[in-house]
Amino acid sequence: MQGDPERPNSPTSPLEYYDRDDAPLDDGPPEGPPEGNDPDDGPPGGDGNPGEDPDYDPDDHPTPPGSPPGTPDMAGQFLGAIQSLATNLISMQRPAATPRPEKVKVREPEPFDGSDPRKLRSFLVSCNLHFRDRPYAFPNDEKKILFVLSYLNGSAISWFEPGLMDPTNSAHWMWDFEVFLNELEVNFGPHDPVGDAEKSLTEISMKDGSRIVKYNVEFWKLVARVDWNESALTARYFRGLPLRLRVEVMRGGKPTALAAMRLKAQDADDIYWMQKDEANQETRNSANSGSSAKKESKGHSNSNSNSNSNQSNSKPNSSANHGNSSSSGRKSDSKDRPKPNPLAEKLGKNGKLTGEERERRMKEGLCLYCGKSGHVAHDCPKAVAAKARAASVESKDSADSKK
């Protein structure tokens, strides 16, 4: 069996060395080229150039396939693995997905009814915040005009009502936002905004008990509406400060620039309020310490008074021990002194029972003489004894009178 001719200028692949009779692949390429085929020679019958042999037919010598019959395509698998690896590397090099930014919620504008011209500027500022926050929602003037109109009420919306009800949409402010703003400011804004701002700027002043932040906000709001030079604004800002801040601003030299003066005045105001807070804190601490001291002193006084009373009670009475004769004399006097009669409150001036006591004894069934139960005054032993004593006294008196 003749071997296939080699392709010129092509390296020999291990897959080309196989048995034509579907034999299994060898462990490696043979030591030499197939028998009957010289690697330096061309097809048989020529000088190495297929075109020089008139009897050479390329169809009789086909190119060997890429892999032997019945075996997997190893080259295809290798290329597939390389492609999969390249895909993984590309996916690893892709930048990580950026997190979606959080949506900032802008506050809705306060409806404007045209009653206060000073509120128009704040209303338009709120509307501009929405235009800047969602530019994709307001791509043209018509969208902006509709948004502003949706927050008008009262006389302000009534002014634009005829144009909105016109089916031809021929109002001159309908499609131009600048024209619409001019219509709104002319009819519902301040009549002379620059003059009003200049008047307010000349009258503005900071109260002594307030903080400088509020003063700065009002001052710069007015500055944006006037056309004053910096020296005039600096002088006006200084005159509007309270005396405590003007004194501090003057220390070390008065600033000539408005920004420098504002920073110096703000630092002085911060120091003032810090000192005031410290003073208030010290006052509170001293008040608390004073109240606690009072409580402690009160507790000590109570304990001292209790101890004194205990000592006075436990201490023997020297005056009582001094002179037993005097004490005994007092005791004798107390013995000789008549005891109070318990029936004194129950007897009237005539020596008889009061009406209330008599009624009580009768209601409770008590003796009207001695006030005890179980008998009546007629059978009272004390009454009988008293009568006997009285009778004996009378008889003795009568006998003495006869003598």
Question: Which class of secondary structure composition applies to the elements?
Answer: mainly alpha
User: What percent of the residues sit in helical stretches (DSSP H or I)?
Assistant: 40-55%
Radius of gyration: 64 Å
- Low-confidence stretches are 1-8, 17-26, 36-48, 314-329
Strand/helix succession: HHHHHHHHHHHHHH
Beta strand %: under 5%
Number of strands: 0
Sheet having the most strands: none
What is the molecular shape? Answer: elongated
Distance between the termini: 203 Å
Give the integer mean of the pLDDT values: 74
**Number of contiguous helices:** 14
Q: Would you give an account of this structure?
A:
- The chain has 403 residues and is mainly α.
- Among the domains are: 58 residues, no CATH class; 72 residues; 86 residues, no CATH class; 40 residues, no CATH class.
- It is built from 14 helices and no strands.
- α9 packs across α10.
- The longest helix has 57 residues.
- The protein is elongated, with a radius of gyration of 64 Å.
- The termini are far apart.
Strand and helix layout:
Layout: H1 74-93, H2 120-133, H3 141-150, H4 155-165, H5 177-188, H6 193-203, H7 212-223, H8 230-239, H9 243-250, H10 258-314, H11 318-321, H12 324-336, H13 355-364, H14 381-402
Helix pairs in contact: 9-10
Distinctive features:
mainly alpha; elongated; 14 helices
Structure summary:
The chain is built from 14 helices and no strands. The chain is mainly alpha-helical.
